[in-house]
Amino acid sequence: MAADVADRDSLAGVLAAIPAERPLTAVVHAAGIADDGLLDALTGDRLDAVLRPKLDGAWHLHELTRDRDLSAFVLFSSLSGLTGGTGQALYTAANAALDALAAHRRAHGLPALSLAWGQWERASGVTAHLTDADRERITRSGLRPLSDTAGVELFDTAVSAGALTARPLLVPALLDLAAIRARSAAAGVPALLRGLVRPARRAAGAASEGTRSQFREQLAGLSGTERDTAILDLVRRETANALGYPDADPIAAGGAFVELGLDSLTAVELRNRLEAQTGLRLPATLTFDHPTPAAIAELVGGQLAVGGQGTPSGPAASGGSAGSLTTGGGVGGLYRRLFDAGQMDAAAQLLIVASSLRSTFDAADRHDHSPAPLTLTTGPSRPNIVCFPALSALSGPHEYSRFGGLFRDERDVYVVPAPGLPEGDLLPDSAATLIRMHVEAVKKVVGDEPFVVLGRSMGGCVANSVVAGLEAEGIFPAGLVLVDSYPIDTPSRPGMEWWNTAMITALVERFDRFDLSTLDTRLSTMGTYNRIFADWQPTEISARTLLVRAEQPLAGTPTEAPGLADWRAYWPLPHEIIDVPGDHFSILEEDTGTTAAAVAKWLASLA
């Protein structure tokens, strides 16, 4: 028999159908999902989605079976509920609630045991989104993966022990205490484990006032070249720590963070580590705007040389809340003020005007300004994937960090950056110049191998033009993948007047996570691309086209009349459709796993 345990009536029906001659004697509740994300990106809906299968289901089982003579009531919780986990606020809360339910049942004389599991080798629905690099980082942090055999043995042992102890919570996990102690100087020891692990002495990696002073004093005694080397070593070392590597050997000075597997969560951890070591206040867009260890080292070195505190990140930065765009001058402040006033068209025009102040290059100079494509992963399967980021103020190769990681060791995945996002970059003078650059970049990375071209949002429009340009030269991609892309003229189409407001609202919510002073360049870059693509139209191509559509609308999207399907991404030329969980942004953020799986399934159909 099957039932959704989060549906109380459905569960009650299944329990009522159990024959009296074979009564229910034990309950094991293992349902759950994860939805990782930074704290300020979380919403009530996302919390409800995580709590529903795990906590609602457990509570219904508790209520509907508490009058039955059970020998065991076992809840599958997670170690994250006890120690916390980067980006796991929702999952942590759900598991902590399970632990509390077990304690509640025990207090009322009912059987209960919550098992706070550690890492398993086998991927599950909860861990499917983790890349190999993520798993390696978890292992290096001191949590070894459990095999199926070891997990079953631990389950049997824990249930037996649970029947003999008054403790409602046990932790079946395989800990590497030496690894935890080795990392404790920089990261500390979780409170739960301090009875097992004696912290290492705080040394040069410790995050304290003394550490900051010590690092600065170390620099003061060095020559210029030695000083630069020490700062670069610091950045490489803290990058390794953030990614879970035992040392900095794999971290090349000029290696792109996105190629190393740094995503939004580990980027925040790296920034925090560097702030703790240097005493500087670094921008939230640190790894976006300075995409290599060498680039960050140059920034840090420059700020330390003048004795500065770095980019303000507190209330003084804007006169308002930390990182807020509510007040302040510059393009970012004006953009937010127009948004708050409901003047969406004026906000868009502001970016167009700001873009006129940016220096440009033409097709003749394109080779001097073409960013090098980045390799996210390699593998033997074909076709390869060449990705194009969206062209918003927060776009860049980092958009595909998680996506690429999910194809690790399977196939080659590349990202072709657009120029103009790092400060000081020139911008293309026309859409034709950009497309010509991108066509040449694709030819260089794919060689004679079969490949598909993929773009998300406005990057899908770019990808369509790139495929058309390649086909015009006799090079035929195996396919085009559009990730929730709309034609650029969507806001002017009948019934789509809401679209611009919904997109700008969602972008501004993301802007608020960053420091006001860091966004002016990126906003003027966004304005430039909006201007040069203003008259763009999709081109008919011979390649098969897949449109990956988000199943969830953004806030402000009309989902009633004239019909639910009308808000979803669409494409005016022939294409296939796969719908995936998430909204316009989350399908390449916390919902990347299902998006990558959908793309992989479609790629298999191309053979």
Automatic annotation (TrEMBL):
Keywords: Phosphopantetheine, Phosphoprotein, Transferase. Gene3D superfamilies: ACP-like, alpha/beta hydrolase, NAD(P)-binding Rossmann-like Domain. The keyword Phosphoprotein applies. It comes from the Bacteria. Pfam families: KR (PF08659), PP-binding (PF00550), Thioesterase (PF00975). GO terms for molecular function: fatty acid synthase activity; phosphopantetheine binding. The keyword DNA-binding does not apply. GO terms for biological process: fatty acid biosynthetic process. InterPro entries: AB_hydrolase_fold, ACP-like_sf, KR_dom, NAD(P)-bd_dom_sf, PKS_KR, PKS_NRPS_Biosynth_Enz, PKS_PP-bd, PP-bd_ACP. Residues 229-304 form the Carrier domain. This is Type I modular polyketide synthase. It comes from Candidatus Protofrankia californiensis.
